[in-house]
Write a structure and sequence with these properties.
298 residues, four-stranded antiparallel β-sheet, Glutaredoxin, ten-stranded mixed β-sheet
Length: 298
């Protein structure tokens, strides 16, 4: 008898796994266009010149940047033209910065390494990254590709497919960078609505995993305010205080002008029972859950 195939995203949705508080921390991303097959471990597995590969890896590690492979939806190995690279940098002022270039030889990636030491250009439109990394996790490909197709049809310029961004069970996952916003549990229709609202600077709570400049409990607190008061701009809410006593957090958040109200939000953290959290990993593991228990206007 053949065992039923396991899909981590189906399992997570059946359990009702919470999205808020699950965005990985990060402020800098390096994008490297690669049209060929993506190794399971992404950039680390590419057969590049060892010196050039290590140069970019070490420069990225020095600033805690994450390297993601990217490609256009529908492109195939052998498509003509140079490949692109980018360095995307979050800025708390909202003046997020980007620097783009091209590469044809492995040695050209040194330009991306150099760009990690430069500020970059502000004011460019954000990049929409859709995880479709099937060799890392089956659900990322099965759920990510329809989202990449829908978003690419609507916004062909800023949308790229990318390697693993974290949170396989929340596929389809979208990272908008350098804004530093993660969305999960998307399909074709919902992704067009969510990304369209984001590009209009209206972040909704419904599919929000979190902001990458915040820690998980802080992400959950901001998501709770968005759920209560409705969508708001990426920088409308500011975390102004955080204290912790064991699993209990108190997060103070200031809301948008003109009222600029302050809120004290209590968040508790606990470990969920062990489950399989990825398609390709048979072992069960536990995840932290961040639950908002109260919101008080100060």
């Amino acid at each position: 008898m053949t065992a039923e195939r396991f899909f981590c995203a189906d399992d997570a949705r059946a359990r009702g796994d919470a999205l808020p508080g699950t965005a990985p921390y990060g402020l800098v991303w390096v994008l490297v266009e690669h049209q060929g097959p993506w190794p399971a471990n992404g950039y680390d597995g590419l057969p590049l010149d060892p010196v050039a590969k290590a140069l970019l890896f070490e420069a990225a590690s020095a600033v805690r940047a994450r390297i993601l492979l990217i490609r256009r939806h529908g492109r195939r190995t052998g498509d003509p033209g140079p490949r692109r690279w980018a360095v995307l940098r979050y800025d708390a002022t909202g003046r997020h910065r980007q620097r783009w270039g091209t590469w044809e030889r492995d040695e050209d990636l040194a330009r991306a390494a150099d760009a990690l030491g430069a500020p970059g250009e502000p004011g460019l439109p954000p990049v929409v990254l859709v995880c479709v990394h099937g060799r890392h996790d089956t659900c990322c490909a099965l759920r990510g590709r329809p989202v990449a197709a829908a978003l690419s049809e609507r916004w062909p310029d800023p949308v790229w497919e990318c390697t693993h961004v974290g949170g396989d069970r929340f596929a389809a996952n979208v990272l908008v960078a350098p804004d530093g916003v993660y969305y999960g549990g998307l399909d074709g229709a919902s992704s067009v609505d969510v990304v369209g609202q984001h590009l209009a600077d209206r972040v909704h709570a419904g599919h929000l995993r979190g902001y990458t400049d915040l820690f998980p409990a802080q992400q959950a607190a901001v998501a709770a305010l968005l759920a209560r008061h409705g969508p708001a701009g990426r920088h409308a809410y500011t975390v102004t205080g955080t204290s912790r006593a064991g699993p209990h957090w108190l997060i103070r958040v200031t809301g948008p002008a003109p009222r600029s109200a302050a809120y004290d939000i209590e968040v508790t953290t606990h470990h969920a029972p062990p489950h399989r959290l990825t398609c390709n990993g048979p072992a069960a593991s536990t995840a932290l859950v961040h639950k908002v228990v109260s919101i008080r206007t100060v």
